Amino acid sequence: MEGHDMAGKTHIAAALSEKLGIPIVKIKRHEKWFDPMVDLIYAGETHCQLAEQTGYSLIYDRLFPSEYAYSRAYGRATSHEKILNLDERYAAMGALVVVCHKDPKAYQEDDKGIIDVAKYTQLTEWYKEFKKFSKCNVLMLDTTDENLDGQIETIIKELEK
Predict the structure, then answer these.
(1) What pLDDT is recorded for position 134?
(2) How far apart are CA 24 and CA 58, in angstroms?
């Protein structure tokens, strides 16, 4: 589950987890110690190895696609090489990347001051760019209507392909 803040990722992930019986992994970011580069290189690698070595199905509430989009939107350094490496490895495992996004008009209504509202559209465009080069199956899921049942149905259909 990927996408900008307030797009419904966590809510959809919880419902999908309950329906499919697949656990959710959500990295909590302790502000004092969180470093995006360290998290991408070490936690991203660790999570990928966990999936590779166990064969477990997991629902991640943000992972390397968000690192790609946010690093681009905020102009901060990241390792594009590592993102490509993780993408290739997740693709080999048959990963589905679901990118939640909303109509730009809905951003204003949902804004809780988490990020600059102007960044929402920019982030969605970077996720679309990610989809172009990703070897994973990437589903761009419009969550504007907040129809949870319909969103879960769309994701499950995509998983069944």
Answers:
(1) 98
(2) 6
